[in-house]
Amino acid sequence: MNFVTRFAPTPSGYLHLGHAFSAWTAWRAACDHDGRFLLRLEDIDTIRSKREFEPVMFDDLIWLGLDWEEPVRRQSDHFDEYAVVLERLKARGLLYRCFKTRSEILDEIARAPHGVGEVYRGPGAAMSADEEAARIAADEPYAWRLSLDRCRDHLGARFGAMRFVEEGASTVKGQGAREVVADPTPLGDVVLGRKDVGTSYHIAVVHDDALQGVSHVIRGEDLFELTPLHVLLQTLLGLPTPIYRHHRLLLDETGKRFAKRDQAATLQAMRESGETSEGLRSIFLR
Ligand code: GLU
Fold this sequence. Notes:
Elements lengths: L3 E4 L9 H16 L3 E6 L11 H11 L9 E2 L4 H13 L3 E4 L3 H10 L17 H9 L5 E4 L1 H8 L1 H4 L2 E4 L11 E4 L9 E4 L6 H11 L4 E5 L6 H11 L5 E5 L19 H6 L4 H8 L2
Parallel strand pairs: 1-2, 2-3, 9-10
Antiparallel strand pairs: 4-5, 5-8, 6-7
Bound molecules: glutamic acid.
């Protein structure tokens, strides 16, 4: 099998140690399998993402000893493709407009039975066509949510049969290759687009992984919980499901995840303080 993997950062800040670990883990796997390593800029959030971070990011990765294929795919150049994907799901009646504000949703969740978490379970009764038309005419903002009930009806037995192969050695999810049931139910009805934004991370990541022929998605275990939703989208869109390897997250000395706000942990700061890439690699192997 052709081994293709990728590192897909959001350029909304400088890369820190956590990113470096993720990039290096994917790159090393590609080297080990004589495979391909891609870099993809996930910058669909055009408010948070800034072009100025990109050259620094490239320098950081080169310093770390990584190389990747050109051209680098920049998601903000492909909004039209993601909009087509969203339209395909809409045309099949799998999405609905949700006019609720975040605070209305949080309020509903707070009143819902215990254990629901911050998950939107759907509108209960569908909004009448008249009310929907009136709210659209009033130019109210809305989100496009994927209806899990409609997905269940649409896929029938295939819904319960969804699986993915997890090969990650993450600390909380067990070890070694295993088949995982892809049940998106705990995630509720997720937002896949908004009135003016024809995409979301979920649409873009699933579309791009398939388009770029990614055979192995190697990423942090914080994204493990979202994988069933990605498998659902792949099933709905007739795309292959890659193999997943969710790796452990690198933690700082207080046991917390590195965040973009931790200035000292940025690769740029480490390079400037005389840290070597060999030094970093030895941290990753611990
Ligand atoms: N862009 C995502 C992030 O920066 C990573 C997405 C992925 O690897 O699937 O967290």
